[in-house]
Amino acid sequence: MRTDTTPEEDRARLPLPRRLLARSGFDAADPLFAADLRGATTYDQAREVVTSHASRLWTEATRTPTTGPVDDRPLYWARLTLSARLRSWRPSFDLTPREHTALLRLWERTSRGITDLDFPPGERWVRVVVTGFDPFHLDEDLECSNPSGAAALDLHGWTFPVGDRTAVVRAALFPVRWDDFADGLVEEALATRHGVADAVLTLSRGRPERFDLEVFNGAWRGGGPDNLGVSRTGPVPLTEGEAPQWSRSTLPVEHMVAGATGPFAVVANTEVTEVPSGGDRPSVRPEGPSEGSSARRGGGGDYLSNEIAYRNTVLRDRTGTGARSGHVHLPRTTRPEDHVPVLEQLRALVSAALENN
Q: What CATH number should be reported for the domain whose range is 122-354?
């Protein structure tokens, strides 16, 4: 049974993350989790411990703060601290490698809200899924926060009127790790949601001072290092079916541009980088991909933000449910206090995406 912690989990032991957890109160989760793991004497009991603590972590993180701005970092560092403990755990009973992997998988999905994407029944609801990302580029800025992660925590459970109905938002957070995407995490989380949700919006951190509504997504990985230091270059690997070179947003981007004014510009971004049909060199095309071209960068680039947008919109097309689906790059901010005006304007964007539903 593999018990080595990951580079991402090892980073959580550094002094700065530990101080952040102490200030937030999330450091109390680790000793409680450790005690309950020690008390588990069967695999089923261990599953109950993992589910309970992961659910509690997600619930606490999505609770509206009584003071200060929404901060995604305590959840991120607490998740890693506890997953490291689970990864290195040596139980008092026989635990197979497969069972251990299943517990780690359960921990990840539950503590990210992926198992909590459920909606109330009834026709009065407009159902909206929103996803964000973990902090990243942590070797450059260990203290950084991701505005998309803060947005997901902020929007989870939000309700707002849409005509004579009420929109309700459920959110989840995704890792900045290539191999989780190749293993089908996005499809696992969102495939069934496309049969239920009226809209599925993916969010990530983008350029300074502007929101980008990404119109086209490309089937290409550009190789940027992830939170494990892993790079991947080449076509986006789908778990099943053929991969189209391009997918497209079905969000009402022009209406969103007009209806979500605020301190930041809102841009409907159609630019892509392609290899034209019959060509051999990439070229930038401002108006979107040409017929028969091969993707090298979507509007959202060639990193995991483009990939989640691509996978989400391909899922929409495969399921044929017609959910409004697309990607929003948030203005590049790195501290919770700087996210505040971003999150305020984002609510107007989400609302505009659902108008005339």
A: 3.40.630.20
323: left (phi over 0), alpha (psi -120 to 50) or beta: beta
Tell me the domain boundaries of the chain.
Answer: 7-111, 122-354
**254-308 pLDDT tens trace:** 999 998 889 999 999 999 999 999 999 999 999 999 999 999 999 999 999 999 9
Q: What is the pLDDT of residues 178-190, one digit of tens each?
A: 999 999 999 999 9
Backbone angles phi, psi at 244, to 5 degrees: -65, 150
CB-CB contact of 205 with 330 (8 Å): yes
Q: What is the pLDDT of residue 67?
A: 83
Please report, for residues 177, 214, 251, 298, 334, the alpha-carbon distance to residue 316 in angstroms, rounded to integers and kept in the order given.
Answer: 23, 16, 12, 17, 31
Element (H, E) at 90: none
**How far is it, in rounded angstroms, from Cα 236 to Cα 316?**
17
